Structure formats: C-alpha cells, structure tokens
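Need a sequence for this fold. Nothing fancy.
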C-alpha cells in the first residue's frame, strides 16, 4: 500500500517546517523534516548523509523543496531527482500512519535512539520507523544478529532457531532481517522462547515482505520490534536490502552467520560488523555443502567459531560471561590417581612386563609399583600372568584404559 500524497487534502503536503510549526498538535520541526527526508534520501547514501550532517535536517529539507539553494557541491541531476521525490513527500501522513499502527518515529538524539548507529558516520540512518512497545535502545544494548542463507538447509534452520532460543533465554535480543531461511528461523526461535527479537526491514514497517511471513511479522510486532529506515508504504529494492544489512551490523554487539554461500549478503553483514569493531562469528557446516562455503571462508579470516548461545555470549557479553568448559565423557582412567595412571601408561600395549620393568619405565619405586598394580588389577585395568602384568583384552566396564582414552 502506497501512502504518497495521501495528506494533500489538508493543505500541508510538502510544506517547509519552520519555527512556527512546533505546536502541541504537531511534531517538532526537526522531527517532521527528518520524517520527510526518509522518503527522499536513499538509506546509506553517504553523499546526502554528508549534506545532512553539514546543513541539518530542516535546512536540507528546505533546500530539496527548492526554498533554498541546493547543497554545496551537489550535482544538478542528483538534486533534480531528489526534488521530484520531495514534492511528493507528506511527512504528516507518514507520521499519522505509524502512530495508527501503534508505532513511532525515532530521531538521533532521542532517548530511545541506539547510539551505536552513530558509528556509521554519514551512512547513519536519517531516522527509524518503529513498531512495537519495547525500548529499542535498551534491547539493542544486549543484542546479537543472526543471519544466513534464505534457502538454508534443515541443519541451518535448526541451528539458527536453537541459537536464538538460547540467546533469548539468557536475556539477549535476537536481531535479523525477517527473510526466509535463517532469518525467519532465528526470529521464530526467539519468539518460541518468549524472548526479544527485532526485525530490521528493507521496506516500510507496514509492508510485509516477504509475503509468506505475514503471520511472523505480526507476532514480532506484538512481542518484539519491527524497525525500518524507509517510511510507511515504501517498498524494498536490492540496494535497500544491502543497506539494511549495515543497520543490523551496527545495531548489535556481534553478528553470527549460520549458513552462507560464497556470494551471500550475510557475509557482507558480518564484514561490516567487523569494520565497525563488532564481533563476527560463524557456525561451521559440512565441507561438502555450498551453503557452508561462505561461512568457512569467513572463519578462515576474522570470524570466531561458535556452536551454541553460551559461546556467543562469552564473546559479546561482559566479564564473567564464560561458556562452560567443553569436555568429552569422563572415563574410568580419568579417576585414577597420578601414580596409578603413570603405571598404566608404562605397560606395553601388546605383550606383558614384569613389575621391576614397569617400575623402571614409570620411574616409580618397586614396592609402590607392586601395590598399585594390585589396585589396578582389582579395578579391571590390568591382569597378571605369573610374574608379568599386561592389559586385558577389554577394559573395565567403566571403559577407557587404552592409550589416549580410546
């Protein structure tokens, strides 16, 4: 649904905000100007972002409406195209639409504005359109991006959902792009765990894309947050998906790539995160899968390997957020005292040896060696053949007496 020009009947379409427009019933002039500019400027355009930084939103909006001179150094063709867009913009209608959806429009400097987005410099969003009741700034402080292939495998979908649920259960927000595949699985995993999830769209917050995620986006709007740089009704394009990824990278503490081919946009998200000083992580997959090739390439460079939510939090969390030590199963030989374990190692893998030889090979006194060998015999680790000792054909029921725990 397009909302362009829908406010022309009240005589305020395309008006120039000025000092006299900030009344109790109107948004403040700068907010109105920024709302208008989201319909005029393309997300991530560093040229127009530079104009905005130097001129401020109100002066730039007046310039693009033709009330003032064009920005210094601006090309005629670019300015002409932007002015065509500005003529059709109706910020009052866009603000009314998002309010009717129970949403709001955030500007840099607002209490709810995630300040980490400022790291994008001139590519920082002009503003953010938001649906949902949670505080975006607070959720973003403890957030992780989970991204990956749209045409993911069952393995990728399972891993994404499991990671998201684990993060949500530990009080972390899961951020993704609401696309098919890994994105959708990540959102569903967080929702299933009753946790926080944020969908960053490449369209307006009222426009469902992809259409198959209508129900999912409705659930996110109720339980989480939907955010977008584009105003209500605006549509996604290829370049807008690419620029959307920079917001995901900047908004979060780190980015995890679950599955990605060599030319995946998810890799660009992770690399942008690394450029911004965020953590980049990847989940390895089968070496025979093309959908794991991109992740493996990332892991050969700047990314860290992660396998579960605890390992992710160990990287992105605070001091003390350590993942549990990973160990294999406890074997019977692990419970032996150091002397007994040393004697067991001294026995030949094949054949037998006398106690004196075992004592010599292990560097243990003969009387201690003899006592420990009888203990090991009682536990089933060794057997006696006359004056010689050897390993039995099979270990004790507790298992694991062979070299290397095999």
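Here you go.
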């Amino acid at each position: 649904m397009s909302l362009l020009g829908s406010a022309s009947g009240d005589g305020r379409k395309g008006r120039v905000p000025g000092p006299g427009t900030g009344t109790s019933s109107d948004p403040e002039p700068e907010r109105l100007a920024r709302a208008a500019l989201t319909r005029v400027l393309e997300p991530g355009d560093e040229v127009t972002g530079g104009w905005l930084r130097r001129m401020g939103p109100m002066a730039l909006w007046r310039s693009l409406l033709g009330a003032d001179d064009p920005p210094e150094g601006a090309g005629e063709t670019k300015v002409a195209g932007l002015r065509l867009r500005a003529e059709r913009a109706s910020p009052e209608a866009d603000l009314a639409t998002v309010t009717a959806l129970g949403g709001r429009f955030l500007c840099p400097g607002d209490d709810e504005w995630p300040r980490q987005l400022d790291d994008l410099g001139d590519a920082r969003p002009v503003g953010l359109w938001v649906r949902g009741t949670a505080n975006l700034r607070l959720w973003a402080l403890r957030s992780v991006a989970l991204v990956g292939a749209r045409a993911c495998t069952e393995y990728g979908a399972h891993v994404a959902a499991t990671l998201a649920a684990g993060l949500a259960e530990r009080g972390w927000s899961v951020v993704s792009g609401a696309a098919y595949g890994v994105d959708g699985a990540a959102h569903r995993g967080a929702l299933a765990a009753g946790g926080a999830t944020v969908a960053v769209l490449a369209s307006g917050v009222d426009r469902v894309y992809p259409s198959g995620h209508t129900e999912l986006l409705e659930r996110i709007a109720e339980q989480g947050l939907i955010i977008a740089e584009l105003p209500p009704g605006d549509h996604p394009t290829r370049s807008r998906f690419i620029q959307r990824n920079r917001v995901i990278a900047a908004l979060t503490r780190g980015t995890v790539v679950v599955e990605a081919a060599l030319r995946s946009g998810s890799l660009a998200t992770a690399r942008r995160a690394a450029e911004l000083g965020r953590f980049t992580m990847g989940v390895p997959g089968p070496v025979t899968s093309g959908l794991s090739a991109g992740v493996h390439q990332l892991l050969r460079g700047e990314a860290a390997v992660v396998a579960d939510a605890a390992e992710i939090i160990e990287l992105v969390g605070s001091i003390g957020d350590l993942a549990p030590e990973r160990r294999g199963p406890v074997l019977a030989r692990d419970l032996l005292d150091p002397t007994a374990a040393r004697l067991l190692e001294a026995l030949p893998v094949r054949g037998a040896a006398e106690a004196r030889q075992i004592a010599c090979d292990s560097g243990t006194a003969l009387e201690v060696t003899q006592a420990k060998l009888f203990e090991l015999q009682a536990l089933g680790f060794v057997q006696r053949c006359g004056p010689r000792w050897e390993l039995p054909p099979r270990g004790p029921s507790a298992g694991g007496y062979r070299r290397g725990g095999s």
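For context: Confidence is low (pLDDT under 50) at residues 1-25, 397-406.
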